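Render this sequence as a predicted structure.
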Amino acid sequence: MNQKFKLLFYIVGFALFILAAVAGYNYLSKNYKAPGSNDVSEPTKTDSEALGSSNPTPETVVTPTGTPPDTESETPGNEGESEDKIKAPDFTVLDYDGNEVTLHDYIGTPIVLNFWASWCPPCRDEMPHFNKVSEEYQKDELLFLMVDLAEGRRETVEAGKKFVEDNGFTFTVLFDTQQDAAITYGVRTIPSTLFIDKDGYILGGIVGGIDEETLRYYISFIIDE
């Protein structure tokens, strides 16, 4: 199975849509419309249950690959494991100043990649945890990339910025105005979070809101102590 199909299978399972890898990509391509239309689907009953979960259930969690750096076992980044890991695909979004940036611009530093919107209650609830933990690290140690799914209708760049500024958040906020990130990663439920190591491999992920303890646990798999 090539890298693209492995990625699709991983993401579809991660998002709780039990589809075959190839079918998953086709499904997403057909169901996301051009920018300017109502591209972000309304939450279904299942989505709403996931969104309302402050503590992820096993069904909403992709277990981290490998073991935390402070154990005696091999860490996720060790030689021999890369073939089983999934390389994070690239996407293009806007930074806070409106400049185009890509995910791969940030590879080289461990990344917490979060998809959110200001109208999403569990997104709003978990943001203080993300901000608190992000301020404990230098930018060259760990990056929090908070991708606002600002498709222009239900969520806008202006609404996202207002929420961030009203709360004094200092993590890196990006805006997915063309839905490149949402389509690439098959995001159907928010919040969704992926944990990417410094080499650009996805080591774990969670659909639904998470608490500070869970966030720190997943971060332990991608940072070098």
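Summary. DSSP finds seven helices and nine strands in the chain. Residues 89 and 123 are 23 Å apart (CA to CA).
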